[in-house]
Design a protein that fits this description.
Number of strands: 7
Strand content: 5-15%
Shape: globular
Largest sheet: 7 strands, mixed
Order of helices and strands: HHHHEEEEHEHEHEH
Number of helices: 8
Length: 267
Amino acid sequence: MPRTAARVVSQVPSTALPQRERRFRYPGRKPLPDREVLCGILYVLHTGIQWELLPKGLGFGSGVTCWRRLRGWNEAGVWQRLHEVLLADLSAAWRRDWSRCVVDSSHVRALKRGHHTGPSPVDRGRAGSKHHVITDGYGSPLAVLLTGGHRNDVTRFLPLLDAIPSIRGRVGRPRRRPDSLFTDRGDDHDIYRGQVRVRGTVPAIARRGTRHGTGLGTYRWVVERTIAWIRGYRRLRIHWERRTDIHEAFLKLACCLITHPQPGSLC
């Protein structure tokens, strides 16, 4: 198991993991420990291997066992709570930049279709999905959303802003709103600028018709780097799952690994 992943998961309280009671009579075999199953989930996330091809000789259990445990943990909100804990650790270490947040999206092909997929205008109408990401000024992911490949980015950056959790870690009330929001010219609309101001954030949205290289790229490159980190996990390069919750679980787990305040390591 990668060391950083082990440190990340060690911060999850044992009470946060759903426990299934064994039957008193005919209890059957004992379930595999959560650590071994998590190793299998991380193996699939890093390598992109199919669930049924997960090698049993590694001690991770079967692919079905790992799939069920991942589904159960995601339904229990384990990854969301873990992400909030890691964000609080960054805030306590003064590694959180609230002066600005940056929004961008990335397209992935969906070979098995399913929910949150649609004909992508950038892939000749093939089925695809989009990863919508919002980061702070340092590039740490604050929230992530999954939509169909045909959805316009302008419809998602406000839900992304609202999806930022209340982050603790410092003295005073938890903080949730950044000072400013940077996004590209695809979100250029005065109505959305007004809605961002209502939320207490200053919009910094590029204007349509302006030439590239006007200055916003100096701040927006951090979210592009974070998207590249997410795409570094092979399971997330293509939307393989028919069930949306499984792909979202992988996406949230990748964000947890990236958010971990350990310099120089992402896996």
